[in-house]
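Write out this protein's structure.
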Amino acid sequence: MSRAHRVVIVGGGFGGLCAARALRRAPVEVTLVDRRNHHLFQPLLYQVATGGLSPANIASPLRALLKRQRNARVLLAEVVDLDLEARQLALDGDERLAYDSLVVAAGAGKSYFGRREWQPLAPGLKSLEDATAIRRRLLLAFERAEREADEARRRRLLTFVVIGGGPTGVELAGAMAEVAFRTLPGELRRVRRGEARVILVEAGERLLPAFVPPLSAAAELGLERLGVDVRCGWPVADLSPGRLHLRSAEDGREAVLETANVFWAAGVAPSPLGRRLAEQSGARCDRAGRVIVGPDCSVPGRPEVFVVGDLAHFAHGLAAPLPGLAPVAMQQGRYVARRIRDRLRRRSTPAFRYVDKGAMATIGRSLAVAEIGRFRFAGFFAWLTWLFVHLMYLTEFENRVLVLIQWGWNYVTRNRSARLITEPAADPGAEAAGRTFP
């Protein structure tokens, strides 16, 4: 009796999970490998970071998601190397895992454009650990300001800067403004209403550069109405404890912001696994480190190896490579599963074709921007559309119900009930911010 075809999927994000689920009726053995035990709905991470949702609201255990899929198993492990000739992966703990088809959906992390020393000073937002660390830093700043008598230190503690004007930066800045200007002032006694500042810094000439200019302008206006100070055309020149140095892209002028709280939303870097895969296969990577894949999402010269999601550079028949968005990863994951099934049946599969379902970003309470096909709109209806789409993309029905209830409560009361400060001693950046300024 011949053994089943072995499919190994690296990464339990949108692409990897969709590929695994799409193979549930195929005559294959699916092994999903991830260094975390949960699937994370990253588009809502900023709400965990600002106390709107709890981590469990946007994350689901991978084993629970695949428990009814008898041909699938989950391994909590990290891939440390690949052997494409032997068709094996090296896992931590000196374990090796063989495959017949390999789907690499390892995703991306934070990019500081070569300035790694900025990372502890400006935490990014890519994981639940990042979100809870940002939430801790945000809330501790207000707690320390409540006790701080020195006005200069209070100003630094209550100045919050978000770097990056893409969807993550816009959504994070808007949510922070609601916390700083509407939620916390009624609970604190010494911090005066309006004393806090939220600044959004973007190196380019406008926010949300992937959207049409009118929607970028609507986003900027909405943030300003929330109280956010938007500064476009100001790249970061340097970052040191307590100070952010900016340089104007127009005339080279420099500006210094005195702040204890800087948050990074400016760039992503694909998993280092992509570089290792390219070295072994002879494939090329783009400047960002994404693997350039073929029309069927496979690695050139390695038809049994596929790369999907943030790690894949797919530009066939397109003016620009597909962006690192959840819908792209999901469609690629399902397509690769179909490609594997067709190959086992000795059928041909057409090239991957992405169906663009649009893009959205929320600015704050009752305000969002959306591009769906030829329709472009902003305001309350866009916000309702954003709510509905994000609820539907959550992987479990239980999470949809919990998030809907929490959103409804937050909307009515303006309260963010998940404002918990955990492990404050583990936040050296915030501690330094409150104690060591000159």
